[in-house]
Amino acid sequence: MSKIIPCVLMRAGTSRGPFFLREWLPEGDEARDQALIGAIGASDPLQLDGVGGGSTLNSKVAIVSRSKEPGCDLDYLFAQVGVGHRSVDTRPNCGNMLSGVAPFAIEQGLIPAQDGTTKVRVHNVNTGARIDVTVRTPAGRVSYEGDARIDGVAGTGAPILLDFLDAWGAVTGKVFPTGKRIDRMQGVEVSCIDAAMPLMIVRATDLGVSGREKPVALDADTALLERIESLRLEAGLRMGLGDVSNSVIPKPVLVSTGDSDSSITSRYFTPRRCHASHAVTGAIGVASAFALPGTVASGVARTAGCHQLTVLHAAGQIDIEVELSHDGAEVCVQRAALVRTARKIMQGELYLPDYVFSRPEEVAKLAVRKSITLIVPTSAGGGNDTMARIIAGKLAPLLGQEVLVDNRAGANGAVASEYVAGAAPDGQTLMFGYVGTHAMNPARQKLGYDPVADFAPVGLVGSSPTLMVVHPDVPANDVQALVNALRTQPGRYEYASAGDGTPPHFVAALFQLASGTAITGRTYEGAAPAIADTASGRTQLMFPSLFTAYPFVQSARLRALAVAGPQRLPGLPDVPTLAEAGVAGVDVTQWYGLFAPARTPPERVQALNSALNQVLADPAVVQLFERHGARVEAGTPQMLGDRVQADLARWQAVVSQGGLAVRDQRTAILE
């Protein structure tokens, strides 16, 4: 098997990646995917060992060959390669990378060029859709130079016209895979559409944002990201795509009003980060939902014929021509066209190391020897995940080993905890645990792990205070006014819980015990949907961490009534503690720590603790934690162990006093 293969690196639209002829790659899907993983350098989050750029936008591959489809010139297979994990996903499509397919194929001799322009019909292997691509070829040669400008790319280039002919329902078989144009999921109206790319579209205002924020602001709102991911997972199931936790489709989109009747504003996610500009296929889907009636994105009613529509994104806009027709009483999209540009960056030979072609089990053994896996018990984008990635990035050079973050959300942290508890005690598998996994959840339920016996504490990482927040429409301006209302008007208000056994659930229980009130709770799958519903007014009260609450408080979507801690917060100096407000005993700090499996050698634990404390002494790390509403807390393994035992006993007492039922969760996890 050759380890040197030809490759052309291209910028196509607002994406970038290597282009290959199918014959340049190894035969068979498994060998092909191993080559792509090695080419991109997928195993490393920074993709230092390949041509990727550490982002999904430039971790893409185009594979081109002469078409086997009648009436088509080229077959184009798109591959989305993992960032920080060995994966290749060929279920989605990419319209940006599509814009480089025809120029690449012409230059490789697959298609003869005409004088002036050359039209090529491309068959997208991923979806079965056909696209006509028109390229400038003066004197029979591809030209990349021109005056066309696309937002998100510096400079200008030759226009490349993409005319999508039959992309509607290409992946799922239906334009609206759920059978409805609007579904209600977790209290939010959602439109699931399969138009060039399976999308889950939500009104931005329904999630408490305007939809015109910069991507960096949306990426910083971890509660919003968790909420979007929770909705996306449910949408994937309803669309018939199955469990999409390890897939990039459906792509989430937040929409809001445009600048005119012919424009709509979109924020497109990839899926766990907001796109710096916008995907082409995503723009086709958004424009389709905008043009068709009855969706959350629908604009004014439109007649049959061609319409010039604009999708406004963070870096500018994408202009799309959409052709509508009537099929009986239904309005349908016949085609959509738009302009992109592309540029060949370099052409040459790609060198792949031996391990690229190792069998998966051999690669796994190699990874165990060379890297540490840090298991995070929550989904990507949350507070725990953010802190874990800060720690991982700083630990790696100190330990001389790569530290990979692996998110294993589920069962309020029990899935991740059981995984680490059963891992080999060699210091290669660690857990970013917190008060929920090692004190609250075990106090609430019988689990398949023991938070004390099954772990070797490595060291404390940090802590974050808890806030008491209410929806702005709640008339109570202070804690005592709220307590009086809860006593005199039982049932008027509901509190939001992030799940049984989570910090917001336990703090609410402690508050009720201390204040002599009884509040109805509404349980959600995570803090993100819980706080989003509180911000929208579906629930009125919540006890989130400062990290979760801060963006909502800063934007006045929630009002902070009190701090569930021993002192006021520097960032919220006018917000009293609950004790100051007359409710004593509700002192809850959410702490975070690093754990190894039990029986990990003491010298290995000590080495990890030493490196961790060195990281936590870095002023840059201290600043990053503070920016995210957390405080660095270094310490010895013994200090973390003592914290676990003390908090476990405390929360067991809360469970007993509050009459909270205990149940066996192990079966639920296995199911």
From TrEMBL:
| Pfam families registered for this protein in UniProt | PrpF, TctC
Which residues, by range, are in coiled-coil regions? none
Give the enzyme's EC designation: 5.3.2.8
| Keyword terms of this UniProt record | Isomerase
For this protein, the record's InterPro entries field holds:
BUG (IPR005064), Bug_dom1 (IPR042100), OMA_tautomer-like (IPR047687), PrpF-like (IPR007400)
UniProt GO molecular function:
isomerase activity
Q: Which domain of life is it from?
A: Bacteria
The signal peptide annotation in the UniProt record is: none
Q: PANTHER family this protein is in? A: ACONITATE ISOMERASE-RELATED, ISOMERASE YBHH-RELATED
Which family is annotated? Belongs to the UPF0065 (bug) family. Belongs to the PrpF family.
Cross-referenced NCBIfam families: OMA_tautomer
- Indicate what this protein is called per its UniProt record: 4-oxalomesaconate tautomerase
Organism for this UniProt entry:
Diaphorobacter limosus
